[in-house]
C-alpha cells in the first residue's frame, strides 16, 4: 500500500493543532499548511478523540504478503491451476525474496474465493482439434431436419458385471474406514465386463451389439467370482 498516498508528518499535524487552538477555521488552516481540508478535519478529529496526532498502533503482527505479492499468487494460479502451495512458496521466494509457510499461500487463495478441487478427467483435445470441432459445429448448426433424418449416430460403452469403474462414496464418521459396511469389494481384473455398441437415427433405434468380451487372454488366471463373471461375459457375447 506504500506510495499510494502522501503521509502527513507529525510536525505538520502539530502545526494544524496550533492553528486550530488559535481559532482558525479548517479551510484557512489547509491553505496555510498546504493540506486539503479533509485531511485537516481528520487530524483535528483524531486529536479530539485520542489527545494525540500520532497514528494508532495496529494490533497483531503485520501482513507478511503485500498487495503485489497476493496479486502475483492469483495471477500465477490463473495461468496454471495445477500449481500447488509448496511450489508457489518457492516462486515467491525466487521473485520477491520472501519466505512464507505454504498454509499462508493457501489462505490467500481461499480469501479470493478459490478452493482445492479434484480435477475432472476428460479426453485430451489439442488446439488444432478444438478448432476443427468448432468449425464442424458451426457448419452443422444451420442444417435442416431432413439432413439429420439421414444421419446415423453410433457410440460404444463398457459395462462391468461386478463393480463400477467410477468413484463410489460412503457416509461415515471419523475412524470408520475399516468398517465392513464401508468397504468396496474388488476382485482381480475388476471382475470382467463387456463392450457394446449401438446405433440410432431420427426414426429408429437399434439394439446393443456386443463387440467382444473383456480381457479374454486373462481367463486362465481368473479364479472364483472373477471366473464366473468372465463366463457370463462370454455367454452374453456368444448369444
Describe the model.
With 239 residues, the chain is mainly alpha-helical. The protein has three domains: 10-50; 67-112; 121-210, 2-Layer Sandwich (Nucleotidyltransferase, domain 5). It is built from nine helices and three strands, in the order ααααααααβββα. It has helices at residues 10-21, 26-33, 37-50, 67-79, 85-96, 102-111, 127-140, 145-148, 225-238, and strands at 153-160, 193-200, 209-213. A hairpin with an 8-residue loop joins strand 2 (193-200) and strand 3.
Strands side by side in the biggest sheet: 1-2-3
The CATH topology assignment of the largest domain is: Nucleotidyltransferase, domain 5
H and E order = HHHHHHHHEEEH
What is the CATH H-level superfamily of the largest domain?
Ribonuclease H-like superfamily/Ribonuclease H
Termini separation (Å)?
76 Å
Number of helices: 9
Supply the number of structural domains: 3
Give the amount of beta strand, in percent.
5-15%
Average pLDDT figure = 80
What is the overall silhouette?
elongated
Give the fraction of residues assigned to helices: 40-55%
How many DSSP-defined strands?
3
For this structure, what is the CATH class of the largest domain? Alpha Beta
Structural class, judged by helices and strands? mainly alpha
